[in-house]
Task: structure prediction
Amino acid sequence: MSTTTKRILLAVLSAALVLLAFTAAYRITLRLTTPQTAAPPAAPPAGESGTAAPGQPAATEQTAAPDADQTTRSGEQQTANPAQTGETAPATEAPSAAEPAAPQAEDPVSPTYIGGILVVNKSYPLPRSYDPGGLTDECESAFYEMQAAAEEEGLDLYISSGFRSYELQSSLYQRYCDRDGQAAADTYSARPGHSEHQSGLAIDLNTITSDFAYTAEGKWVNEHCWEYGFILRYPADKVSVTGYMYEPWHIRYLGRETAKAVYDSGLCLEEYLGIDSVYR
Ligand SMILES: [Zn+2]
Result:
């Protein structure tokens, strides 16, 4: 072997060694750098659980954290969803749809006055919002006047049922429907909005039974209530006109002049005013 070939071989060998050394060094640096880049992802989980408490508490916190997240997330979703539905849909669409709907539901229903007389029957309802808050002062004072006059005759008149709100009538009517069926309930109980009691001008006296007609109080009321501005609203012989069974206990305040005119006519209020009483 010549010295030149030995030198060449040495050069090649040394070059190969240098190459091996570089690749080895490169692999080492790779190992050093990749663990470092891999370490941060591993660190934050340790840090999240470890910031509060290291070691075992981390495990409990990790199990506890999801619960808290779920609750806060579900809580956020609950608050976020109503906000989404409430702000996007109802706030923009529903109110605009509800506002026209509400007037449509109430506006068509307005109190009906015929000849200055407020009419409430199956044909003419009161709006849901109609609420005098009780018997009108005029009706109430007329009753007390009649009550005092009856008392002088040794009779005991008292109010069993006066003003009834739309809501109360609604629950009463529903109860009767559930008990007897709607067809039967319609003969003795008004649908909500159709009860004269909502007007604050109607009173149920004493015992609310047909037997009241045969009591001294019932007979006296039948003969004298007009003198105090009341009429028997649902007479026995007008059931087909009023749409209600005979109610000797139910009186309606009209004021003395009108009550006398209706009484003298022998007509029920519907006939007197020329109207009907029919659910449509
Ligand atoms: Zn009544």
Remarks:
- Residues 197, 202, 204, 250 surround zinc ion (CB under 6 Å).
